[in-house]
Description:
- The structure holds 2 protein chains of 2 kinds.
- Chain A is built from 13 helices and 2 strands.
- Chain A is mainly α.
- In chain A, helix 6 crosses helix 7, helix 6 runs antiparallel to helix 9 and helix 10 packs parallel to helix 12.
- Chain A is globular and about 85 Å long.
- By secondary structure, chain B is mostly helical.
- Chain B has 2 domains: 155 residues, no CATH class; 77 residues, no CATH class.
- In chain B, strands 1-2 form a two-stranded antiparallel ribbon.
- The longest helix of chain B has 27 residues.
- At the A-B interface, helix 4, helix 10 and helix 12 of A face helix 3, helix 8 and helix 10 of B.
Amino acid sequence: MKTKTKTKLLSYLIPLCLPIILFLIFTIGTRGFGVNSIPIIISQSLIPFILSFSIVIIISTGLFDLSIGTQMIVIGILVVWLSEFMGAPGLLIGSIGGSVMCAALKGGIYRLLRIPSIILSIGLVMILEYFGIEAMRRTTTMVLFVKPEVSFIGAPPYNYIFTVVAAALFYLIYNYTVFGIHIKLVGDNELTAFQVGIKVNKIKYLAFVISGVFVGFATILYTCYSGSIGFGGVGMSTIALVFRPLIAVMIGISLNRFCNNLLLNLFIAVISLNIIFNGLIAFGLPASTQDITLGVFLLIVMSVTENTNRLREWRRRRTVRKEKQKIIA
Amino acid sequence: MALSGILGAMSANISIYLLLPVTIIVGIVIGYINYIFVVKFQINDFLLTLSMSFVLSGTASFVLNASGIGVPREMLKWSSQGLRIGVMIGVYIICAFVFGWTPLGRQCKAIGANEKAAVYSGINVKRLKSIAFIISGGVAGLLAFFSVIRAGIANNTMGGQLPFDVLIVLLIGGFPINGGVNSNIRAPIIGSITITILMNGLTLIGISEREQQLIRGILLLLIVTATYDRKRTPVIK
């Protein structure tokens, strides 16, 4: 029993080493980066953390959706307009309701067209960006400001409350519901899932809808955090919004090898990325190094996790070879 | 493409004849690095594309350290319609021949159709993948060359939206997303001509850029819906 507890504790500690080590490196190596940076890092991590829930639901089902970021911006524009008339309730209901409706429509289009989800998402990015731009043009400005009496939601402690609620909801849905089990089954082997009686199309549709809930949460924080929302223009630039949470998801899934708690791993991944970004700024390095670091970090994590078994096998063979030589000698 | 262009432009300021070989060599090297990560380290190709786009765009910005780097003026004379069309036709003929009439092309299609079966058939999949990545990198370098001599400048935004535009062109041209036996070299030509005529036509009749993007998005979905081979893919992800 004690060994079991010890093993479980170790399994939680190992992934935690990643942000701790990164934090220590940047605290020791730079000026201006330290304990005072922690609230900023956590605040910056909340939106990608919530978006990562949406991505996990989609990826677990075996699908892919690059339009989540665009959806967040477009719904954000609509709810900022809605909040002008209905205040904070309008923003809250509009974000989650609007995002769920958009996601439901996406799921419906996916079922209707029966094409790969990645292509569908690229097409939807192009279409949604148009509607986003049109919505901004109607307001005669390319930046919409959120009223102060509404934007308080993006400030502590409300942003933490929203994040905790979203995290609890994700944890429950992913680990303790039949839907959570079914999405993993469908993602793992769709044909087998179909054979055992799972309604695969319904699960995929629901995956889109549920992911929309978390995009709604992220939209609330996104609009309120900065107090404004804008649209740079067409050109599929909003796809970039999904990359950071996507990388966090990949890192989080890789950390599952050490600790079987995806929620914690996602949080660790997002925090680690933000520590790196803020640390590099504290180093005085240009913004371009953030991109290089992000890419290299992902490559290293993926290389290590994809090759853990190969490394283990190589070490085992080396041990067997040495023992053989000892016996022969 | 951006990194190839920037390094090529830097070399062009030493000697104008260095631009083409440097852009192509940098492209080939990057292609080979991609091959190492995909085949040797077995990283998912989409994730590799994502990470390398960050690394390379960051490196391009870091190397550039400015808004752009110009090339000597006399190089702008190289940017002629005849040269571009000639190179395009030459590349197309070479690719069509290699892809359609050589064992290399047939083996590439076999890998796309069923990689395991290709391995059991004795095809050296790793070698072919390395060739594919190298060719892809080399062509990206060639595109960087043309982009630099056309604009007279290399910057870190070169080829920014190109991956998605190329994907759209291929899909519209009827190229199967998973590759395989139905892959054909006509698809890029058909797709790029279609898109170019469509976009230019829309611009001429006064359709704005955002409306063009909407039309491209709808067109992409409709064409893929109509042409996607659902019989060969029992599971659509």
